[in-house]
Amino acid sequence: MSDYQQPGYGYGPQQPYGGGPGWQSGPPPNGYGYPSAPAYGTDPGYGTQPPPPSTSAAMWAHLGALLTVTAGSMMCCGLGAFAGWIAPMSVRGGERNKHDRYVRHHATEALNFGITQALVAALGTLLYFGTMLVYGLAANEAQRASAGLAIPMLTVIAMMGVYGITGVVCAIIGTVKATRGEWWTYPRLIAWPMVKAA
Which residues contact 14 (CB under 8 A, 6 or more apart)? Predict the structure, then answer.
């Protein structure tokens, strides 16, 4: 038999499993011989980390507003544009989401989007019918018989259409961002910050 023996093998004194510098004797911390893993968010090497965001509720806040404004407007003669704030408000006011900053942020953004869409839809309706009324009162018989009224009416419709498409694109972006766990804010023109997240 050779006189050479590797440390830790053979007849010499054995170290306990996992021995070495820094090993503490005594019973294992968790009964299995391994130190316990720190709880989520309390790792001393990385500081306190927030829990993963609730992406499902945040996504439904944006998606609810988007579906109400688009599908509701198509099915109910444009009335969906006035009700886009209902779904985000119900997500924001839900008991489970009252203390979740991530969900409240996205629900508040979607709520501001829905309120803004309702206000712009009301403004567009007033402009549309106001243009008809003013043109009808101010125009003479020849102007009324011509297609002159179509120009201001089509201008109002085009402005509202461009604004509506921009809002739909922003709502889709908000839905995707909320699903990915990212913080996102609508442009001020699309969602006036009337309601605060706090």
Answer: 8
